[in-house]
Structures are given as structure tokens and as C-alpha cells.
Design a protein that fits this description.
Elements: H1 9-29, H2 33-83, E1 86-91, E2 98-101, H3 103-111, H4 118-129, E3 134-136, E4 139-146, E5 151-156, H5 158-169, E6 172-180, H6 182-186, H7 191-212, E7 215-220, E8 223-229, H8 230-238, H9 243-253, E9 259-267, H10 271-287, E10 292-295, E11 305-308, H11 320-334, E12 339-342, H12 349-364, E13 369-373, H13 380-391, E14 399-401, H14 402-408, E15 414-418, H15 429-433, E16 437-442, E17 454-459, H16 466-475, H17 486-499, H18 509-520, H19 525-532, H20 536-547, E18 549-552, E19 556-560, H21 569-580, E20 587-593, E21 599-605, H22 611-617, E22 621-623, E23 626-631, H23 636-650
Parallel strand pairs: 9-10, 12-13, 12-15, 13-14, 15-16, 16-17, 19-20
Antiparallel strand pairs: 1-2, 1-5, 3-4, 4-5, 6-8, 6-9, 7-8, 10-11, 18-19, 20-21, 21-23, 22-23
Helix pairs in contact: 1-2, 11-16, 12-16, 12-17, 16-17, 16-18, 17-18, 17-19, 20-21
The structure holds the ligand Nc1ncnc2c1ncn2[C@@H]1O[C@H](COP(=O)(O)O[C@H]2[C@@H](O)[C@H](n3cnc4c(N)ncnc43)O[C@@H]2COP(=O)(O)O)[C@@H](O)[C@H]1O and manganese (II) ion.
The site of manganese (II) ion has 5 residues, from α12.
Length: 655
């Protein structure tokens, strides 16, 4: 009864009064009832007609009204599209040509003296796929996409981005600086010379602080810390922490062999944990060989970024640390039921030699110890060494297979990881995970994939080999309780020989001391030669890679295996070793298809060329001049291209 609402109450009362009057008149004036009924009928017809007319008028007026509202809405939508600070673009799905856009888009693009074109649509769609803002002129826009209607909405986010960047820039940064090699460099000098060194360090670091305007504080002659915000850290990152090089160069000019290790962390609030992360980063920078910055945000999932690392590790002259580690290790071993020792995957001679030295160490402490190997990952020379051990007169040699180790391991057993510190490189990840107590002894630069709960870690990247490190620990623990057998000493010496390429690389006086100790324990050169002998067919395969090599960038040798052939680690490693022996070669790389389905790269270098960081960029690692990587789902050719790209970036060659 909508139409009734159109009459006001006064009109309805007036109509009803009139009707009432007419009805009274009709009854009074009519001579008969029939006539009265006729009058009343006519009256009803008139009233009904009035009401019907009223309804029709109302409906017509209502349609006009709706039409008017629609017109107004459309006008204001157009006005909004024309005036709102949001860009709308419709594009052709196939050609990506723009079909229509609102005046705002016209204004943004014209303001930048551009006409919206297909390439702009492509750029917008790409940015959207990368979940990024698009920058047009000085403005930044968030992109919203309606795929179905091929509509792009660009929402101005310039202020939001600026605000966010201001916000991020104000994150707190804590840095911890340590001068590498300070103790050794100042050990034997006079007090006045030491003052010169201290002044040099202080003034260099003050210059660093003034250049970037951060707060620097000295803790001791070789330790400093600094505070700043992310805006300042960002500048240091852009300069790739040039302070490392500046410091190294000017200290070399002054004939002071010093470098810096810096640990930096940043984040929101929680300053104690930012500081703690910075300290952990500093430790990581030092064990990776120093002369570098390790930067990691103070969040669980953040990964470290490395800068520098362009110096080879300096030998720690002092053996105090080795003695302290030897003592700490003795305590840990004495608290365990028994000891299991593992090397890395495809355990090599150095890992086996180190494991055997650790087995003897545990035996001297009165504990039963087992060297674990995996027959599925057995290198020929390691296989020969294990055979020799098993045939020796020592009886049960305690060199056991992985499956046996799994069976006999106890809840309170200790795992010693030798010659590796990355959990991803351990002989068997599940076996590693089954231990609550872990010790790590390694000569590789430490990486982030480090065992979380290591009770003790002894990482000395300046040592030639893991065998050298463990033999040194053993020397501090040598008693008459249990002596190394001839075969054990031979295998440990074979480990040192393998990693030093027969004492031609990475040796220090400590390497020769360890070797001399092993000789005194009966290490036998003939036996070592038999164990380390090269298989004739393997030798031919090494040559296959060497013959298929060329010199790139003037002094880099790059050898590639035959595409239809598969090679094992050692063949690839030996090819890289051989290539490095060529005259004028500073670094060598061998790329092959590995028997296990990935593409393998072995990298070797000399003269201060860091191949570790190169291999890290390609997902691998290793040491400063002996590194490698394994790459899945790529061809040899693709890996070669990637390596060349990484080398170009190293040499700052633009494509
Ligand atoms: N993914 C990785 N992450 C971190 N570090 C890695 C990774 N992959 C390899 N590495 C480390 O890189 C170096 C070099 O490895 P490589 O395979 O090129 O060479 C090693 C052995 O294959 C090789 N080797 C073993 N036996 C012999 C032998 N009889 N003659 C010649 N060469 C041999 O020597 C390298 C052993 O190096 P070590 O383990 O550091 O002692 C290496 O450090 C990997 O751990
Ligand atoms: Mn090894």
C-alpha cells in the first residue's frame, strides 16, 4: 500500500469526511434504497479512480527519481575516476597494449613526459609478479591487478614507502671490531713500538667513525665497538666495507701485518640480543680467517652476508689454544659413555686421518671410540687404508660401518665431527641428529650451517689439514697408556700429505711438527704411497678434463669434463689441482658431471685469490684456495656460464 503514503493524514481525513457527507446525502436524498446504492457505487468508482490515478503518478515520479539518481551516480563515478588519486588502466590481454586509462594515469605519465605504452604495461606486470612497487618519476605505486577484466590499479604509495624506509633506516646497529693478529704482531716489540701500533689502530678506526658519523668506543687495544642506525650501515654496505681494505693497505704500508674482523647486527628493540648476534658474527668472521665483515640481522631466519675475506688465514703462532682445547676435550670425552667419530660425506684421507687421531685421543682417555664410514661413500684410497687397518695385527680396529654405528650407539655417546663443520656435509644427517653431544674439529672456514649444540668447536682455518689439528691435540695428551700404531700414524700422515699436496701448500711450522710426531710414531712412507696410489683409469679421466681446458681472463684455467661422461669428486679435484700447477695460473676450476647426478665444480687458487667466496656464491664452500660446489638440475654448460658470470662480477667486468 505504498501509494497511501503519498496522501498526508489531513488529505485522507478530508477525503473521508467528504465521502461521509456524500453518503449521508445519498441516503437522505434518495427515494429508494436502490437509488442510494447507485449513488454510493458512483462515489466508490470516483474514489477508486482518484486513488488509481494517484498510484500511477507516484510510480512515474519514482521511475524519474531512480533514473535521476542513476545519472547522478554515473556522473560522480566518472568524476571519481577522473579525479581520484588512483590510476586505472585497461589493457589488451594478448598484445598488452593499453586500451583505456583514467586521467590520473595520463597525468602521471605526461608529468614525466611519457605516453603510456605496451612496455609500461609489461614493466608494471613484471613488478607485480616480483611483488614490488613501481616507480614512475618521483612517485611509487602499489600495483593491484584484476586479471579477469585486464585492469591495473596503481595506488600512490610514495609517502608510505618513504615512511617505511625512514622507519627501517632507524633500526639500531651494533658492531664489534677486533684487530686480527694483534697479539702476534705486538708480541716481540718494544713498548714505544706498541704505542705506535695502538695509535695507528685508534686513528684508523676514528677516521672510519668520522667518515660515517657513528659512535665508536674502545674496549682494549685490539677491540672496539660501534653504534649507529641502519641508514649509516647502509652506506657502509654500499661501500662494501671499504674500511677492511683501507686498514689492510695502510697497515701494510707501515709494515704492521694487521687486518680487521667485524661482526655487525641490526634490528628493532632488544639491544642485548642485537649485541649478542654482533658478537657471534665477529666470532664467525674470525674463524673464517679474519679480514672480513659478517653482517646478520637479528632475526631467527636471517642469513649472514660476508664482506672481504681477501686475506689468507694467518697462522696462530701460539699453541695455547690447542692446549686448552685438548684439556677441554679430555673432560668432555671422560663424561661420555663412548665416542663416535665421523668425517664429511665421501670421507677423504684427511678426514680419515683426523678421525683415527681422535680415536687414539679417546683411547688414551680410557674410552672406547669408533671411526664411522659409509661403504656407499667410500673413496678408493680411504677403502685401501681401512683394509690395511683391518688386516693389521691390532685385532678389532674400531673402524665401523654406519649401520653398525647406528646399532651400538648409546644415549650418552659423544659425536666428534672432523674435517667439516657444516651439518649438510656430514657423513649422514640422521646419524648426526641422533646425538645430543657434539664436538667439531675442522680446518675449513666456518659457515652458517654449523651444529647448533656443539659442546666444543676447534676451528683453525690456518691449519693445513684436520689431521694436523687432531695430531696436535693428541700431542698434548700423549701418555704411555696407548700409543698410535704404525698404520694409524701412516694414515694421519697421509691425511696431512693429501691436503698439503705433499707439503707444497698451506704448510706452517706446526704442520711439520705434526708430521715429525707421526714419523716418531712409525708413519711409513711406503705404506702411504700404496694407500694413496692413483688408479690408472682414473688418471686417464683426470687428463680428459685437463685436455679439455682453456685459459680465461688471462690467468684462470677452466677445464670441463666430457658431456657424456661422469666423474667422481677426486677426479674433478685432481684435474683442478693439475690445472693450478700450470705456469701463470692463479686459479683453476674443473667442472664435471658427477656420478651422483649433480654438476660438480672444484676450485683451486694461489696468490691471494679467494675461491671460497666464489664457490659460496654458487652454493658451496671450502677454504680460501681449495673450494668446491655441487649444483643440481643444471647442465655443465649452464654451470660454466654461471661461473663465468660470478668471475666477471669478481673482476667487475660489465657485460
Ligand atoms: N657444498 C660444499 N660446501 C662447502 N664446502 C664444500 C662443498 N663442497 C666441497 N666443499 C669443500 O671444498 C673443498 C674442495 O673440495 P673438492 O671436492 O674440490 O676437493 C676435496 C676432495 O675431493 C679432494 N680429494 C680427496 N681425496 C683426494 C686425493 N686422493 N687426491 C686429490 N684430491 C683429493 O681434496 C679436497 C679435500 O679437501 P678437504 O676436505 O678440505 O680436506 C673441500 O674443502 C670441501 O670440503
Ligand atoms: Mn676432507
Amino acid at each position: 500500500m505504498n501509494f497511501v503514503r503519498r496522501f498526508s493524514p489531513q488529505i485522507i481525513i478530508a477525503i473521508m469526511v467528504i465521502v461521509q457527507i456524500f453518503e449521508i446525502l445519498a441516503v437522505i436524498l434518495s427515494d429508494s434504497r436502490i437509488l442510494a446504492l447507485v449513488y454510493l457505487f458512483l462515489l466508490n468508482v470516483i474514489i477508486t479512480s482518484i486513488l488509481l490515478l494517484q498510484t500511477k503518478n507516484y510510480q512515474l515520479r519514482r521511475q524519474d527519481f531512480i533514473r535521476k539518481i542513476n545519472d547522478e551516480a554515473e556522473n560522480s563515478l566518472n568524476a571519481t575516476l577522473d579525479n581520484m588519486p588512483i590510476g586505472v588502466i585497461r589493457y589488451n590481454k594478448e598484445s598488452l597494449e593499453p586500451e583505456w586509462f583514467n586521467p590520473f594515469i595520463d597525468m602521471v605519465f605526461k608529468g614525466n613526459e611519457k605516453i603510456l605504452g605496451k612496455e609500461d604495461i609489461q614493466a608494471i606486470l613484471k613488478k607485480k609478479a616480483d611483488e614490488q612497487y613501481i616507480q614512475i618519476g618521483d612517485q611509487k605505486f602499489v600495483i593491484n591487478l584484476d586479471d579477469e577484466k585486464t585492469l591495473i590499479y596503481l595506488i600512490d604509495a610514495t609517502k608510505e614507502v618513504a615512511f617505511r624506509s625512514d622507519f627501517n633506516d632507524s633500526r639500531a646497529v651494533i658492531g664489534s671490531i677486533s684487530v686480527d693478529n694483534y697479539d702476534d704482531a705486538t708480541d716481540l716489540i718494544t713498548d714505544s713500538e706498541r704505542t705506535v701500533v695502538n695509535n695507528f689502530i685508534a686513528s684508523s678506526l676514528e677516521n672510519f667513525a668520522t667518515k660515517y658519523a657513528f659512535y665508536l668506543r674502545r674496549i682494549s687495544s685490539s677491540r672496539y665497538f660501534f653504534l649507529c642506525d641502519y641508514r649509516i650501515l647502509d652506506k657502509m654496505i654500499s661501500d662494501k666495507f671499504s674500511v677492511l681494505n683501507d686498514f689492510k693497505t695502510s697497515s701494510a704500508e707501515k709494515k704492521i701485518p694487521l687486518t680487521l674482523s667485524i661482526g655487525v647486527s641490526y634490528g628493532w628493540n632488544d639491544f642485548p640480543t642485537i649485541g649478542k648476534t654482533a658478537m657471534n658474527n665477529l666470532e664467525l668472521a674470525q674463524v673464517r680467517g679474519g679480514d672480513q665483515v659478517v653482517l646478520r640481522e637479528n632475526t631467527e631466519q636471517a642469513r649472514p652476508t660476508y664482506f672481504g675475506g681477501n686475506s689468507e688465514s694467518r697462522t696462530q703462532k701460539s699453541r695455547t689454544r690447542a692446549r686448552a682445547i685438548s684439556t677441554a676435550l679430555r673432560t668432555i670425552i671422560s663424561e661420555a659413555d663412548d665416542i663416535f667419530i665421523v668425517g664429511h660425506r665421501f670421507t677423504d684421507m684427511d678426514a680419515l686421518g683426523a678421525a683415527i687421531a681422535m680415536k687414539v685421543f679417546a683411547n688414551i682417555s680410557g674410552k672406547e671410540a669408533f671411526v664411522v664410514y659409509d661403504p656407499e661413500q667410500l673413496l678408493p684410497d680411504v677403502g685401501r687404508a681401512i683394509d690395511k687397518m683391518n688386516k693389521s695385527s691390532d685385532g678389532f680396529t674400531h673402524i665401523i660401518r654406519l649401520e653398525t654405528a647406528r646399532r651400538i650407539k648409546k644415549a650418552n655417546s659423544l659425536l666428534i665431527m672432523v674435517d667439516h663443520s657444516k651439518t649438510s656435509q656430514t657423513l649422514n644427517l640422521d646419524f648426526y641428529k641422533s646425538f645430543e653431544k657434539v664436538v667439531v674439529i675442522d680446518h675449513h672456514r666456518r659457515d652458517d650451517d654449523f651444529p647448533e649444540q656443539a659442546l666444543l668447536s676447534y676451528i683453525e682455518s690456518s691449519a693445513s689439514s684436520a689431521s694436523e689439528l687432531t695430531v696436535e691435540l693428541l700431542q698434548f695428551h700423549d701418555t704411555n697408556a696407548r700409543k698410535m700404531s704404525n698404520i694409524e700414524a701412516s694414515i694421519a700422515l697421509a691425511g696431512i700429505e693429501m691436503d698439503t699436496k705433499n707439503f707444497t701448500k698451506a704448510t706452517t711450522s706446526r704442520t711439520f711438527e705434526a708430521a715429525a710426531y707421526l714419523r716418531s710414531r712409525g708413519a711409513d712412507n711406503d705404506l702411504i704411497k700404496i694407500i694413496m696410489a692413483t688408479d690408472f683409469e682414473k688418471y686417464k679421466k683426470v687428463n680428459e678434463i685437463v685436455l679439455n681446458s682453456k685459459i680465461i681472463f688471462g690467468n684462470i684455467a677452466l677445464g670441463v669434463g666430457a658431456t657424456n661422461q661422469k666423474y667422481d669428486n677426486i677426479t674433478t679435484a685432481k684435474a683442478a689441482d693439475t690445472l693450478l700447477d700450470m705456469a701463470g695460473v692463479t686459479a683453476s676450476f674443473a667442472i664435471t658431471n658427477h656420478t651422483n647426478g649433480f654438476v660438480s665444480v672444484s676450485a683451486r687458487s694461489r696468490n691471494g685469490f679467494n675461491v671460497q667466496t666464489l664457490m659460496e656464491q654458487m652454493g658451496g664452500g671450502g677454504h680460501f684456495n681449495n673450494a668446491a660446489t655441487q649444483i643440481y638440475e643444471r647442465t655443465e654448460e649452464q654451470v660454466k656460464e654461471e661461473l663465468i658470470k660470478v668471475l666477471k662480477a669478481r673482476f667487475e667486468i660489465n657485460e
